[in-house]
Structure formats: structure tokens, C-alpha cells
Amino acid sequence: HVYLNGEMLSEDYLDPSVTTDDYMETTVSEGCVFLLGDNRAVSIDSRAFGEVPMDTILGEAKLRLFYKPTLF
Question: Which among 2, 16, 46, 48 could bridge 35 via Cys, Cβ 3.0 to 4.6 Å?
């Protein structure tokens, strides 16, 4: 689970089976973000490389595509 200021975030975009075994507590510096991948078990994200300064982020997502397996 991810907590922000002591409140657990609702992450409905994650598959309910997603779990991670590592635990860390961190304070994110002003002007920075902490990035987490949605495939938590194998994502290389801020848990590995730390917070990212906002002024180094060059773009934003305009479209997100979601893979949904065929039900047949």
C-alpha cells in the first residue's frame, strides 16, 4: 500500500493480485516527485533511483492505452 501524509491511497488501477515485499518510508523533497510503476514487483522506479526533480520532467501523458486480454 502507498500512504500519503498518513492516508492510504486508493490504487484501483492496480490488479488486486499485485503485491510487493519491500517496505520503505520516505519523505519527498519540495519540488520533487516519487515515481512508482504499476507493475510493482518488477518496476524500476523511485524505490531504486530515488525522487525526481519536477524541473527534469519533460512532458506529460496525453493518451494512455490499456491492454485488455480477449475474453474468448
Answer: 46
